[in-house]
Amino acid sequence: MEANPKFKSQLLSADEVRRALTRIAHEVVERNKGTQGLCFVGIHTRGITLARRLVEIIRSFEGVTPPMGILDITLYRDDLSEIGLQPKVRETRIPFDLHGKAVVLVDDVLFTGRTARAALDALIDQGRPSRIYLAVLVDRGHRELPIRADFVGKNLPTSKTEVVKVHTLEDDGEDSVELWEH
Amino acid sequence: MTVTPDTSAAAPTPRSLLDFQGWSRAQLESLFETSKMMQEVLARPVKKVPALTGFTVATVFFEASTRTRLSFELAARRMSADVLSFSAATSSISKGETYKDTLLTLDAMGVDAYVIRVDAAGVCHQAERWLGKPIINAGDGWRAHPTQALLDAFTLLEALGSLEGKKIAIVGDILHSRVARSNAELLPRLGAEVVACGPATLLPGTLPGVQLSTDLKTGLTDADAVMVLRLQNERMDKGLLPSLPEYIAGYQVTQERLDWAKPGAPLLHPGPMNRDVELEGPLADSSRSLVERQVANGQAIRMAVLYHLLVGKKPRGES
């Protein structure tokens, strides 16, 4: 087991998280030329919270509530036969037809790209969207796959031994992004 | 990717599912949680996930059974495992090969887990020692049929919400039933009170944790759910029952007798059913019957069992 991580610094405050999400919401609507066919799918756990926020922000300035689903990527992980641990399978619920939709996949941190790869496979098994965007609050680099985000709250160069922790009001009692060291 | 360890079941999952020994209530509840997630997979247009890519699951049926074998094979394929299918009727067992030699021959082909059905109790335990790999007991003699009990319990949980303090009546040939024995082991562990009911010649001397009764009214009164077992015709041939009409007169579950149970109490049957023998025909098609739910849930349960026994292991890693 790894040693307990140590707190290093705060990367984003609650206000900075709020501004980043507001900007992403506007960029999404601008890129999609409106809310037509737009929907959101959040990846467990913080991605779901962030997707809900984006939907709410879009509702506040467009007066339209894009549909939203939740996605668990456990059954699509590429390390299930390696980890020695058995991750809990969590709920996937996409209560609308993905066919022809513009899907914004939402996660908290983009790191190796392996979660995004698994999420793309999981989504495509459920239908054929017209396109899939990736939105993340933090891009911390160190990609192991050819994957990039379309919407990024903040690019944060990190070392591989560092840990980026995203906290949300709903899941953790406050909005913040912190850097920890192993 | 970050791993969310499953902390709901602190102890490691047992290597095999031979019966419920070694399975804690928390582990069983975690298995039911996974089964719910598998139901969502089964509701998709594409009912397949890549979780067990690279694994090979062998279904080894020394005793004939089509439906259980198909259910296991479909479950394994829906998890993307490769399936090796062996049945005694077409095999070398009929030429005199032993269980052990048959299993070791299959093992040389690179199998990661075995689903075994056999008419002799204990062969699955032996197989685990011979092979050192996860074994899922798909029915061994009269002893155990754990995935059937799991799908029964899961179906009951869907219908009743919780099994805590619920009275479940099992009616029919208890003595020869591995389904009854596995349910008798599982349901009390989930908080249920189980009453097994049938003619004296078809009841075992004792069944730990279960109340036995030869009186159908005692068994059904205030039951929250009723599980009806198949009556096999060879029981009559062996002189255990005087006649079919006599069994029907005393033990057939009819609309009238079902009124002894709680209002709306659901009916379960593991199949295959002898209509108008153990169960009045129209009841099998009524809204009380959960038989189709049982079959559908069997898929989800078997996918979940494969997930819990195989994920976290390397394909062809241990031998």
Topology:
The complex is a heterodimer of chains A (182) and B (319).
Chain A: E1 6-12, H1 14-31, E2 38-43, H2 46-62, E3 68-71, E4 102-110, H3 114-124, E5 131-139, E6 151-155, E7 162-167, H4 169-172, E8 176-181
Parallel strand pairs in A: 2-3, 2-4, 4-5, 5-6
Antiparallel strand pairs in A: 1-8, 7-8
Chain B: H1 25-42, E1 56-61, H2 67-78, E2 82-87, H3 99-107, E3 113-118, H4 123-131, E4 135-140, H5 146-160, E5 167-171, H6 178-186, E6 193-197, E7 210-213, H7 216-220, E8 225-228, H8 234-237, H9 244-251, H10 255-258, E9 267-268, H11 281-284, H12 291-310
Parallel strand pairs in B: 1-2, 1-3, 3-4, 5-6, 5-8, 6-7, 8-9
Description:
The complex is a heterodimer of chains A (182) and B (319). Chain A is α/β, with parallel strands linked by helices. Chain A has helices at residues 14-31, 46-62, 114-124, 169-172, and strands at 6-12, 38-43, 68-71, 102-110, 131-139, 151-155, 162-167, 176-181. Chain A is built from four helices and eight strands, in the order βαβαββαβββαβ. Chain B has twelve helices and nine strands. In chain B, the strands form two sheets. Chain B has a five-stranded parallel sheet. A four-stranded parallel sheet of chain B has the order 2-1-3-4, sandwiched between helices. In chain B, helix 3 (99-107) packs across helix 4. The longest helix of chain B is centred in the last third of the chain and has 20 residues, at 291-310. Chain B is 37% helix and 14% strand. Chain B has two domains: 25-141 and 296-310, Rossmann fold (3-Layer(aba) Sandwich), CATH 3.40.50; 146-288, Rossmann fold (3-Layer(aba) Sandwich). The chains are: A alpha/beta (182), B alpha/beta (319). At the A-B interface, helix 3 of A face helix 1 of B.
Summed up:
The complex is a heterodimer of chains A (182) and B (319). With 182 residues, chain A is an alpha/beta fold.
